[in-house]
Amino acid sequence: MLYVVATPIGNLGDVTVRAIDVLKSVDRIAAEDTRRTRQLLSHLGIVGKPVDSLHEHSSARDVERLVEHLQAGQSIALVTDAGTPAVSDPGEALVKASIAAGVRVVPLPGPSAVLAALVASGLASGSGFRFVGFLPREGTERRAAIALVCETPEPVILYESPERTKATLRDLADAMPERPACVARELTKMHEEIVRGPLSDLAEKDGWRGEIAIVLGAWSPASHAESIGEAEIDARIDRELEGGTHAKAVAERIAAWSGRPKREIYERVVRRKSSSR
């Protein structure tokens, strides 16, 4: 069997009794970071357990070897750096391969940065939520992902590295300045910090550190679109074009911000660009 084992996201006291029992009983462990996992095992008094590396750069053959162990009758515990494996995590490949091979997959629920950030944010709603993981770093894919976030009325949760948190908050605030948000940093750890406010305020903050989750509150794209007048759209198109941004990128950015169809905005951008020459 493949056990998908949630481990603490910071505070080691959050490990479950069942997780400890499984980590002790399995034949081997597949870990995103073997050093970090061995530290956890040492803390739990588990020694001599084979620990295999399974990270974002692991090959398909690495996954196959683990599946071969499972098919040979061994049991494996899949763990990630922290929290629940296979959620925006390389362990997803092993879960899919195990299912395809007819291996039983057993989940062990426990710590989750997604849920911890959501419940602490005060932004949860009865309509559910969307988890998007890490946004693409740049280009069309990033703009498309931000546009999807803008179109999502339910709360949205995403992860970000501390180095890119300010840039991501700025991009989100550029599209939805008044959307309520929360940055949850170093959850369950000594320096835990939970900062709440509109995106426009959070985007001004510097010095983000540690593991970060961003929660965006419920949002009404239609109401937001209605509040933006035609002159405001034209003024922003002109500002973006003056800054040297390519017409297509301008259209994608303003469509996300205004809630208008991208094709409509693109045609508008082209017209204003031509008239300014």
From TrEMBL:
Its main location: cytoplasm. GO terms for molecular function: rRNA (cytosine-2'-O-)-methyltransferase activity. The keyword Methyltransferase applies. Residues 1-203 form the Tetrapyrrole methylase domain. GO terms for cellular component: cytoplasm. The keyword S-adenosyl-L-methionine applies. Catalyzes the 2'-O-methylation of the ribose of cytidine 1402 (C1402) in 16S rRNA. Belongs to the methyltransferase superfamily. RsmI family. This is Ribosomal RNA small subunit methyltransferase I.
